[in-house]
Amino acid sequence: MHAVILAGGKGVRLRPYTTALPKPLVPIGDQHAILEIVLRQLSAAGFTRCTLAIGHLGEIIRAYVGDGSQWGMSVDYATEDSPLGTMGPLLTLRDRLPETFLVMNGDVLTDLDYADVLRRHEASGAPLTIATYARKVHIDFGVLTTDASKVVAFTEKPSMDYRVSMGVYGLSRATLDGYTPGLPLGFDELVLDLLKAHNPPHAYEFDGYWLDIGRPDDYDRANAEFTSRKSLLLKGA
């Protein structure tokens, strides 16, 4: 099985942590970088090949990961000279990728079964599978519903439930057909194109542990919780 890790972002939201370190190498706990945890998890799940799409401070990532042999994987690299969006780096890699593969952000801390995501994607026949997570958003204001300048409803500080993308995807290579290598392509653009073509993505619903450490609050939470959750996150790794 093959995974592509998107590790080229500047990590602006995590400054000053990412001033000298690429976001995938920020520390979690006392011993691990987030990218190391992800690579350990992928190897334990049976992934043997991984491509790292690197850009900002990519030479540090390359020096840290090397050829991946320390985790029992074969790792290669694709360098992003200018920002290409979430899916854009895959276009230049297309000929190096298998028919189906996993794509994920390099800043995800989760106990998701990556191999099962790819298996379910292959079984679904969908062009794209999106791992989703239930997230509750609290609104700190009273919310008004208006009609013709009249308030017709009011809710005090409501909570809203959404299913959000976890930044982990199963993808079929053919889904990239028709897009031009070297041009930016965002995840949002790809999903909207698939919906417009009446070829919807498949949703892989997950309710375990997930944090996107690109958010400062979640990064602080990840460090606070890692010791107690280490056996869950690195089981079999």
Automatic annotation (TrEMBL):
Domain Nucleotidyl transferase: 3-227
UniProt keyword Secreted present: no
MF GO annotations: transferase activity
Keyword check for Transferase: yes
Pfam families hit by this protein: NTP_transferase
Alphabetic keyword roster: Transferase
SUPFAM superfamilies recorded: Nucleotide-diphospho-sugar transferases (SSF53448)
InterPro entries: Mannose-1P_guanyltransferase, NTP_transferase_dom, Nucleotide-diphossugar_trans
Superkingdom of the organism of origin: Bacteria
Name of this chain's protein: NTP transferase domain-containing protein
Organism: Streptomyces tricolor
